[in-house]
Structures are given as structure tokens and as C-alpha cells.
Amino acid sequence: MTWVKICGITNLEDALVAVDAGADAVGFVFYEKSPRHVTVEVAREICKKLPESVEKVGVFVGGTAEDASSVFHRVRLTTVQVYTGQTAEWLAWYQTEDIKLMFALPGDALKGEFFIQFGTTTKPITALLVDSGSATVPGGTGECFDWEGAKIGIWHLKTEVPVVVAGGLTPDNVAEAIMTLHPWGVDVASGVEARPGKKDPEKVRAFVRTVREADRKTG
Has this prediction a pTM greater than 0.85? Predict the structure, then answer.
């Protein structure tokens, strides 16, 4: 069954809608330049009211693992998702923490010849998130990357690590993304919003419902 994350949560109401809809995870963006940025205090209060079974994912852009560690423990997150070019530091930290870790990279980086190395670790990363965006706009663009162009690259990645697809997903196109890329998980933010930082409950429910319908079709 495809793992579903509703990202860009900024309030308890939206988090509870995501949980009620059947999402496996909710995401909190700690990147201050994002319109979906949430404070540590707000995220902590939301997490206190969520079931233990729901993954609580903190999204970080750049920064240090030490900074993320403080947020991780204060909010009581279960997973860290990071956009960074400095993977070695994060991997070293990850080995010492009881945490799940996802690295993010742009889907367009998977076109043609590519090579990704995360070093040698005793504990492999939890997943790799393939997103749209760039170094200056790391995700949250509302745009899809080139699925066809990245398809072979994602297929190769899936032999090594679970892959989560993000970037421009909506209730209208997520089934196509699943049929095309066969990811381990999908991640949505702007595609289920009424406005930046505020979810549309019907879109959230429709997104999760569509994913489950696609799961049944792909068997």
C-alpha cells in the first residue's frame, strides 16, 4: 500500500483532517522562507494531539543536523526530511538517533546519467524523496517534475531505497504518478490546499481516496 504524506501542516484542524482521511504521515516545514513554515511550538502542540501511529515528519532545508536534532526532540518528530548537499554530516547524526531519515533531491537530476552516493552507513536511510524544485526553490513549487524523463532513474533508485514522489501532485494526477513511477510513497502539499498553509479538507480526502483506489488497481 502506497505511503501517503500530507505536508505543509500549520494547524491542528488540518492535521486531524489528514489523519481522518487515512494519511500515513503529516509534514511540518521548518524552512522560514516557505509559506507553509511552522514554528517549533506550534508543531509540538499539534503533535501532542496526533495518534502515535501517524508519522510526524520535520522538513529542513540546509542547516545543520545539530539544529534539526533540537527541533526533532522538542517536537517529538519521528522522521526528518532534509534538502541538503551535505549528506555526510546528516548520516553521521542519523546513526546515533532513533529516527527515520529521508533525503530529498530534484527529479530532473535523474535524467540521463546520474550517480548518487550517501556513503557507507550501518543504518540505511528510510527513503529518498524525489521532488520538483531547485537549490533556490527546494520543493513546494506546485509543479511536477518530468515523470517520463526520470522514470528510469527512479526505477534504479528503487532497487536501493524506498522512493517517495512529490512535486505538483493533486487528487487529479496522483493516480497517474503511481501508475507511471510505482513509488513506495507520495507526498502532497499545495495540491490539497485552499491557500498556502491552509488545507482544503475535501481535496485531502480526495487525494488519499485516489491513492487507495490506485493501489487496488495496481494490486
Answer: yes
Please name which of 50, 12, 36 lies closest in space to residue 192, comparing C-alpha atoms. Answer: 36
61-81 per-position pLDDT tens digit: 988 999 999 999 999 999 999
Q: How many C-beta atoms lie closer than 10 Å to residue 151's C-beta?
A: 15
Which domains occur in the chain, in start order? 3-218 (3.20.20.70)
Task: Count H helices and E strands in the chain, helices first.
Answer: 7, 10
Nearest to 183 by CA among 157, 205, 204: 157
* Phi, psi angle pair for 5, to nearest 5°: -120, 130
Give Cα 182 distance to the centre of its chain: 16
- Active-site annotation, residues: 7, 131
d(CA 92, CA 85): 14
